[in-house]
Amino acid sequence: MAGNPQSDSYTITPRPIRLSVDHLKAISTLTLLLSDLFMLVLAFIVSYQAREVLPFFPQPEEQPPLPTYLPTIILHSVTVIVMFYFSQLYHLKRAFSRIDQLRRVVGVVTLGTLLASGTQEFLLQNTTLDTPYPRSLLFYVWFFSLMFMVAGRELHRRFWTFMRRRGVIRDNLLVVGEGDIAHKIIDHVRNNPELGYHIVGIVTAEEKQGDMLGFPYIGAYYDIPRLIDALQVEQVIVALSDYRRGELVDLINLCQRGKVDIKVYPDLFSYMAGDLNVDDLGGTPLLTVRDIALRGWKLSLKRALDLCGATVGLILLSPFMLITALLIRLESSGSVFYWQTRMGLDGRPFPMIKFRSMREDAESSGQTWTVENDERVTRLGHHMRRSNWDEIPQLINVLLGHMSLVGPRPERPMYVQQFRRQIPDYMVRHREKSGMTGWAQINGLRGDTSIAERTEADRFYVENWSLWLDIVIIIRTIWQSITRTNPNAY
Predict the structure, then answer these.
(1) What value, to the nearest 5°, has the Cα angle with vertex 88 and ends 82 and 93?
(2) Residues 6 or more apart from 336 whose CB is under 8 A from it?
(3) Is the CATH number of domain 171-265 3.90.1170.20?
(4) Which of 118, 127, 129, 349 has its CA 20 to 30 A from that of 318?
């Protein structure tokens, strides 16, 4: 493959760059560090004042002047910044979960605050720099450091996301491959400018003319080294659905030039074997490439979360549910609730309950699948669907054990029978209880979207369950519902 002659049938014109992308990335990292430093210093100053104002602790009779805490401020700030560095919180990613980052920030700030306090006792005690550091002040420093660091990082993220959307920071991206996977990646990059990619073109096994989604085919595999140099490529994504090991090795060797970052879309085996375990069969070692994460004590833990969440939810939301029921009856005649048979754990049917969001005769025409701008949806139903409020009565299903707060979305039996014949491993999603929300839903895979992609998302959830993943999904669902930013909610 690498021995083929180079093609000279077209001319490459590199995208003009007014300012070095590496310099802009360095500036982005530096501004994040300075923002963190500023927020830590500000948090300490606010904590100093809060100790005299807030009633959570006894107010000090006499507090040393703020300048005497300068060594403590420096020690606290430097300690937390260093811990952030070693926790790779200055390794900026294009896409990350703010909830996951919040968890990491809480952990690092907590450890850093305690470490700085202990270090002060060790280094500054019995010196001219020694200053009383009471527990009340330590608590305020920890609390406001968390608040200010999170706020500062969110402002920083929003600013640089805006800059990427404006095209100020863009990595030249070369896509290697064609077919559904390449199409999916290009479509995702095109629809998410905040990722900061500029697709320069697509490379295929054999040179071809035309384009994919408006991005041109610019060469064959053997052109990759020349294209990387000529187009100043910083990122290469190898998007092949079916390849031989030797072919992939050759492609990676062709891409290894300068500071090029190479990403490979995983093939089917890599996806299946993402979390290998070694089992023993009478002395014979076996690799487990497909396992279910939710079993044993984890089932009890998840059920406890469901019971607590459903109970608290029904108690707190019951007045609003009553108002919703009255509004539904006032808008249109018919039942307040809508009952429908769905398939849940192990493919067993159960009656799922929702607030009625369509006309009473919505299915008289035979149409069952809801589409965007569906005329059968009532005015109130439209607002309920946008905010997921129509699904709140499913807390009753959760309390009864039919469903879970988080899990694969239940489908009607007729669709399950259809999808299981069309999509490999579709029934894997029925190895766990169905959920009110799930990994697929918060990623926009709902409504009139790809069933295959939904199945892949559900399979990811089933095989990678953790309590933290459930908490993340619940938080993101609540946020999307409040802000009415649920993708494909109609």
Answers:
(1) 135
(2) 325, 328, 329, 355, 356
(3) no
(4) 349
